[in-house]
Design a protein that fits this description.
Strand content: 25-35%
Structural class: alpha+beta
Largest sheet: 7 strands, antiparallel
CATH class of the largest domain: Alpha Beta
Radius of gyration: 30 Å
Number of domains: 5
Helix content: 10-25%
Length: 779
Amino acid sequence: MAHQIIALLVGINQYPDGVSNLKGCVQDVQNIHDLLTTQYKVPDAHIRCLTDADANRAEVIKAFRTHLSQAKAGDTIFFHYSGHGSRENAPQEFWQYAPNHKNQTLVLADSRAAGGLDLANKELAVLLQELAPTKADLVLSIDACHSGGITRGEGDLLRQASRQVEKEGNNRSLDSYLEGHYSQMLHRTGQLEIPIVPHLVMSACTEYELAQETRHRTGAFSSALLEALQDPTANYATVFDLARIYLRQWGFSQTPGTTAYKGFNTMRQFLTHQPIENVLKQNIYFLDGQWWMNLGAIQGVATDVAQPTTLDVYAEDNPEEALGKGIITEVQPQKSAVEWQDFAPDEANRYVGQISHIAVAPLAIGIAGHAPTQELVEATLRAGRSGLVRLHQRLSKALYRLECLPNQAHLFDGLSGLKIQGIKGLGGADLRYMVDVMKTVAHWKRWLKLQNPAPKLSPDLAKLVLKEHRRSEEVMHLSNTTLYSARLVQISLEVHSQLKQTMYFSLIGLAQDFAVEVLHNLSAENAGDFSVKNKHRVNVRIDQNKYEAWYTYLLIVSTDQITDFVLTQAGLKLGHDVVHKGDSKGLASRSKLTRNPQVKNDWFTQRVSLKLVKELVELTSHPAQAFQLPESIVTIKGHSALRGWLCLESAFSQIRKEPIETLLNALGQCHWQPLDLLTTEQKLHVLTLTQLQNIEEVTSENPLELMLDLVLAPEETLLAMAFYGEEIHTLGEANASEGSLTTLALRQLVTHPKDAAICQICLVKGRREELKTLRGASF
């Protein structure tokens, strides 16, 4: 069946006595109805319009359950609301999800009549969950005051300023929420959970702003949205970008927001969801005495303006003939300041820009193997005009490498040796998919490095804290942390700020499978000292067939709101081969709100990474016992006194540079190589002993013996070394093998300077005559 759009449009001008009436909401509904029927050819039967008295609580809920529920898989469900937005006291059971103890609400026609109720964000979340079985795409447009977080679930922490008017009275009872949905859940499970399903929300303003109306008696946001939709082929990102520009240039102070939940794909045509090519030219506009381009550090613009990014500039209505050049002089997370080089623009006009030079180097990926396959991949990459990736032949130490075979190509992590993804087939769709995989990796790498080298505000005023929850205590971690555990680890994240002005905070998760996910998007207005805590603990773990796992979290702190759908990207199915079968509103009139932050156009980032290493085997004090590490060439003999746990971990990481990586790089220059301690494809070079007891009992007279499934050549020597950033410690040495085994005696253990119960050991081998050169090398 062909794709269908099923729409519910709600607009309320007339409210009961005591609530101010609005002027443009019904007209918004009519305008959007006309757009759907003319431009998108939606039949009237697929559109339900509820206005004024008809838009009461019962009818709106009924329309969700009877009209919108008609959608089928692949359809688009579109809900638009124009009217009052508000907030109200929330029951205590919801306080863990809302630091200000408030709900965000839609004020329906009878909400403020005797016995009436607003439609709370937590109820709207349930209505969306009820639509999830249709497998249709869910799109919401909310032109109301304080609409920024109208569908937020438990993962989104809110911090809001006071409104002009909000609902008076005591807390709503939990039973009053959508026929007792949450009270029944609490009785049934003993806890509350706000549902969150894949959907997109476009909101007229942030949580603490007021949506405004135009002099033509329409909603400013709705009008900007309709103006942006003059191009029916535009995708969500482009439509929202244009709508935001129109609002700014029309003089409205509100800041529209958009949030894509649970991987909603915004790079498709608006409502029709046809896939389109990425837009390469970005909008340029004049605001507050400065020209801006909607492209920033998140998209890869270099933050070092000493080597500025340059661009070609075009008229918006003639994007083929360049008018001149511009350079980027200031870089924000999602926008950059532009100065013109060879022409004088008209401030009343809009322009588009295309990057002609960017100072950020593309991700270098080594390419080798079957020459015809290489040529096809390189041609596809050139056709995509992406500056994110550059392929290099004869690149000996690439972070990533692409191995080409007849009718196949496979991308590998150059450090761990693990396969990221591959294609079997060299059709157009296959090749474009592989290019997209490489671009996904490049985007992810840029996220890891995202920072502002010269912020105006001190980064020390906002901190991201990772808290580890142990059985008897909580441990707070900043920056880089490695945890060794044989079990699940419980963590939570906290944001602590002392910034005394309006700020926006985006907490981003960077996953090992190259996914980028927005974990929290929150704001604080003139907050001063505050902290926001994730009330829910998260279990982090290592996959059964893996030895370690990485978790990285990035906090973006900005004076400008960050549009979070541009932050997200889906992960990759690591190790898989892909075969393609074909190508593929507070309660008030919408009036102006003035804000005067102390610092404008500033941002910085904070980062914390967690490396989780699996404890494999417990080492007990039984000299006659041998402890074999699974899938490893290493066996350790029991010691008379030493106790602890044995782990294997990597020396190299795409997340952060470990001290041992510096050591091994230097060893490589002396032609010494680390041992691969596993018998599988995964490369682990570090033997780590944790929870050590009686370390001082390991001596030359009473060594700890390692037996390795390894045969040394006559000219080779095997060394055990420890290195924590300064001095190299030699722990033991072996010069010969017996049969198929090599025994190495550790005469001492040197523990980590930050943890006296951990010793990291790297085993390296090389030629005897180079041993002197190795020991004399500069590290």
